[in-house]
Amino acid sequence: MNEILLVEDNPDDVELTLRAFRKSNVANEVVVVRDGVEALEYLFATGRYADRDSNALPQVVLLDLNLPRIGGLEVLEQVRAHAKTKLLPVVILTSSIEERDLVSGYSLGANSYVQKPVDFEQLIYSVRQLGLYWLLLNRRAPSTVQE
Amino acid sequence: MILSAAEDAPFRLLFAANPLPMWLYDAESLQFLEVNDAAIDRYGYTRDEFLQKRITDLRTPEDAERLVHDLRRAAPGLRRWTNMRHRTRDARILDVDIVAHTLDFRGRAAVLVVVHDVTERKRAEAALRRSDARHRAILEAALDCIITMDGDGRVIEFNPAAERTFGYRKKDVFGRPLAELIIPADLRQAHRDGLARHRATGEHKVLGHRIEMRAVRSDGSEFPVEVAITKIPGDAEELYTGYLRDITERKREEGALLAVNAELERRVSQRTAELQAAVDELEAFSYSVSHDLRAPLRSIDGFSQALVEDAGPVLNEETRSHLDRIRKATQRMGQLIDALLQLSKVSRGEMTREAVDLADLAGRIALDLNRRAGEHAPEMTVAPSLLAMGDPRLLRILLENLLENAWKFTSRQTDPRVEIGSASGPDEATTFFVRDNGVGFDPTYAEHLFSPFRRLHAVSEFPGNGIGLAIVRRIVHRHGGHVWAEGAPGRGACVSFTLEPARRAREDVHHE
Q1: What is the pLDDT of residues B102-131, one digit of tens each?
Q2: Cα–Cα distance for residue pair A21/A19, rounded to 1 Å
Q3: HEC profile for B423-439?
Q4: From CA B310, how far away is CA B301, in angstroms rounded?
Q5: Chain-wide mean pLDDT for chain B?
Q6: 3-state secondary structure string, chain A?
Q7: Nearest residue of A to residue B335 by CA position?
Q8: Are A82 and A27 in contact (CB under 8 A)?
Q9: B427 Cβ contact partners less than 8 Å away, ≥ 6 residues apart
Q10: Does A120 lie at the interface with B, CB-CB under 8 angstroms?
Q11: A123–B298 C-beta distance less than 8 A
Q12: Which of B128, B148, B164, B364 is deepest in the core (most CB within 10 A)?
């Protein structure tokens, strides 16, 4: 079972999201990276993550938009630009409900756009739905299946 | 002696039947001796009456004196008098030219007179003189320069206004080529070419139009003029008359106006830029509200919940209740932030204008509301078609808020009813309304309904964030309309708003 990559700079949100995964019985390992640069290094096995198997990809990427250094939308753009990660499921998980973020997110090829709710119970609900869909139900595109 | 044989045929032809009035009078007594038929006809006297008169009887008194004087001095032979005046029997005055010849008639010295009646010609000449005088007066008094040139382009008329404007005297410019006088050097060739082309082909560019061009004064200074040129058919050749007006002052005013406009334009774009900066700032602020203010709320709510879950067993009832209140408050603040964002969203952004059927829109929104309301769903009456011009997205948000309110405030009625309709106003706008038979409100506070976060009911009674009608008002105002509410406690509420009605065909109506 592949890991979930959580790209999130807010430690509280990291903590709460991890808690929500635990409470939803999502058993996948959750890898947390704190900014866009780190996220790209992880996905392309460069920099700090140079010793990672460059063919291994996470099951799904949960991507915040407001990130230090490289922002979420730019991460998404680079992910979609590379053949290896082109079809990787990316879910935007953000506070923003700005229409322009929604539009840019989808037009850059996000698979889903989920607003982080203030209500923790709703957050658990959202995470559970995400887990159900992206970890259990969704069949990944063959070219990105990594055994 | 020709006339001694008065009964001769030649006499008859030359004298009696001559179409010009003729007579003979005695050089001494001035008595008429003979008159012809034309004279009788023209002067109105019978032959007998004539023969009773003297020649001086035909004259006006002053002419008669002149005649006597002349006759005394006159040598025998042929005489002419012009500008004489004769009186007829009915006292009309005839202007006549006279040819007279002295001769011997039956042994007496006599004068033979042939009368040429020039009354009509004199009258026509006088009329012509008066007409010329009128034209002259117009030319002299005209404020515009009136300049006439002949077919060769030489000046033949130059009125006083032209003298004042160009600094030439008429007598100095008469007969000189117009081009060399008032047309700037760089335009002269074009003028000559145009005139030559016109004379060769009849083609013209300036006749009958009002054109603006430069002209030059006698001192060489140039100034702008407005010119209209007409062609006047002459006897031998065509003449061209130009009406010119010095428009220096008007040009200066136009220039000033242009400068003012440019300044205004500059200020408008500066203000627009300032406004745009303010809008950008507002947008950045909303964005940061949406992102940054929600994050700490999420932490407060999430960790309170974690606390309840993890430390649940050791917490007493009161502590649990406090934590519960913390969570409720954070969630409520989250909702308020969302509501504020929505309010700022309906205030920003481009608006489109198209025909929207509010009846159709209301039907779709009601479907959603009814699903949520279940058995509390009110009975809805909608007019068959409610066409308005506006932004479909904003009008949808407007109706959503009004209908949500109607559904909410009728939820406790046993027979909930909502009506959506329109009434044509006296002016261009149409009034639309959403009326319910719900709990209503105290009309004293009707205006407060539309202010953000002002509520007339406790949250515990009817949930809500107090932003719905503020959004409604913002949307109506952005469409240039008015909105107001009527109601009474327990008697329902009616929210009315005005929008520009759509006049386009039904096919163009926007359906989402």
Answers
A1: 888 888 888 899 999 998 888 888 888 988
A2: 5
A3: EECCCCCEEEEEEECCC
A4: 14
A5: 84
A6: CCCEEEECCCHHHHHHHHHHHHHCCCCCCEEEECCHHHHHHHHHCCHHHCCCCCCCCCCEEEECCCCCCCCHHHHHHHHHHCCCCCCCCEEEEECCCCHHHHHHHHHCCCCEEEECCCCHHHHHHHHHHHHHHHHHHCCCCHHHCCC
A7: A118
A8: no
A9: none
A10: yes
A11: yes
A12: B148
Q: Is A123 touching B (CB cutoff 8 A)?
A: yes
On whether any CB of chain B is under 8 Å from the CB of A121, the answer is: yes
Instruction: Tell if the CB–CB gap between B291 and A116 is shorter than 8 Å.
Output: no
Q: Which residues contact A138 (CB under 8 A, 6 or more apart)?
A: A89
* Model pLDDT, residue B7: 57
Does B273 touch chain A if contact means CB atoms closer than 8 Å?
A: no
This complex has an ipTM of: 0.72
Yes or no, beta carbons of B302 and A123 under 8 Å apart: yes
CB B358, CB B366: distance < 8 Å: no
Query: Taking a C-beta distance cutoff of 8 angstroms, is the pair B423, B430 a contact?
Result: yes
CA nearest to A88, candidates A65, A60, A130, A53:
A60
Probe site for chain B from A93, A118, A124, A125 (most B CB atoms < 10 A): A118
Contact A120 B295 (CB under 8 A): no
The angle at the Cα of B117, spanning B115 to B118, to the nearest 5 degrees, equals 135
Q: What ranges make up the beta strands (E) of B217-336?
A: 222-232, 239-246
Cα-based distances in Å from A141 to A5, A54, A59: 18, 18, 11
Torsional class of B191: left (φ above 0), alpha (ψ -120 to 50), beta (otherwise): alpha
Are B436 and B366 spatial neighbours (Cβ–Cβ below 8 Å)?
no
Q: How far is CA B261 from the centre of its chain?
A: 20
Helix (H, G, I), strand (E, B) or coil at B380: strand
Which residues make Cβ contacts (< 8 Å) with residue B228, sequence separation at least 6? B208, B209, B210, B211, B242, B243
Q: What is the pLDDT of residues B425-464, one digit of tens each?
A: 656 678 999 999 988 888 887 777 887 766 667 666 677 7
- Averages of pLDDT over runs of 10 residues in chain A (147 residues) are 88 88 84 92 91 87 87 92 89 79 86 82 80 68 48
Contact criterion met (CB below 8 Å) for B251 and B224: yes
B239-280 tens-digit pLDDT: 888 899 999 999 999 999 999 999 999 999 999 888 888 877
Strand-pair category, B210-216 with B222-232: antiparallel
Phi-psi label, residue A109: left if phi above 0, alpha if psi -120 to 50, beta otherwise: left
Q: Closest by alpha carbon to B380, among B357, B356, B401, B359?
A: B359
Q: For residue B218, what are the CA distances in angstroms to B147, B160, B167, B168?
A: 15, 15, 5, 6
Place of tokens 């969630």: B331
Q: Is B204 on the interface with A (CB under 8 A)?
A: no
A103 touches chain B (CB under 8 A): no
> Nearest Cβ partner of A95 from B286, B294, B304?
B294
In chain A, which residues have their Cβ closer than 8 Å to the Cβ of B302?
A: 12, 15-16, 19, 120, 123
For residue A24, the one-letter residue type is S
Measured between CA atoms, how close is A65 to chain B, in angstroms?
Answer: 10
- Sign, CA dihedral B357-B362-B365-B366, equals negative
Measured between beta carbons, the chain A residues lying within 8 angstroms of B301 are 118-120
